[in-house]
Amino acid sequence: MVQVVEKIEKLIPGPMIQTKRRMLVAFLAISASVLIFISFFLPWWKFTLVAPQYPQGLRVTVYLNKLKGDVQELDILNHYIGMKKMEEAAKFERKVAFFGIIAVSLVALFFLFSGRKGAVLFVIPPLLLPVAFFADMFFWLYKYGHELNPEAPIKISPFTPKIFGVGQVAQFQTFATFGLGFYLATLAFVLIFISFVLRLGVCNACPLKERCSILCPNLPKWPAKPEEFEKAGMLERAKILRSIQND
Q1: Do 116 and 203 touch, CB atoms closer than 8 A?
Q2: Which domain covers residue 233, as residue numbers?
Q3: Which of 29, 182, 217, 238 is the residue whose CA sits 20 to 30 A from 188?
């Protein structure tokens, strides 16, 4: 029996007869969906500013829908260099963040039901989530650093605060890093991508792959029966499957 299974694994990309690969695909997709949802409640970006009058540093934590920390104190310091208040940034993004997370989380979950032709469509949104956050953060940092009030008490040249790492703004030192929410969303994409690669092996071994579309028509029938392989002209695979069933 073991030798027969080994022959199958060499014949097709992945143990199509066994359900282990399907179960792993499902586990990874569900895990990715859960991680994306959880990330909403965790910080995505952290910023610390150290100044002579604030030796312990001022800290701001950015969530997808809110700001926490020393926001008012930092706004007071930013006022002196002509920078806008932080709460005025990304108002639309914060308003729709929860609905966006729900949508991407569901897309990752619906990957379980995707067909061969539509699987890639379910991989793109989880990828775009951390990428979109990074791009949006950079946009607002650039905008705030380059749209300074010319009548501010302290005149400095336009700049872009660092989105990651150590930076310098006038006499202030800054430290920026991504939060756990961002890393969970990134991990979710990695999981869904691995699930996608494994799913390709399952789909390529399916006798109905040529009839597959955006949704998987064979999902309720898995694993496929020998007759399905014979109809698809996969006689060798049908023969091996029959030998296993008769074992």
Answers
A1: yes
A2: 1-18+223-247
A3: 217
User: Residue with structure tokens 């969303």?
Assistant: 185
Of 204, 20, 193, which Cα lies nearest the Cα of 111?
193
Query: Each residue of 203-212: b (16+ CB within 10 Å) or e?
Result: bebbbbbeeb
Residues 158 and 201 in one domain: yes
Domain total in the chain: 2
Spatial CA neighbour of 241 closest among 8, 64, 77? 8
CA–centroid distance for 88 within its chain: 26
Is the full-model pTM beyond 0.85? Answer: no
| Bridge partners of residue 114, in order along the sequence | 215
pLDDT in tens, 112-157: 777 766 777 888 999 999 999 999 999 999 999 999 988 888 888 8
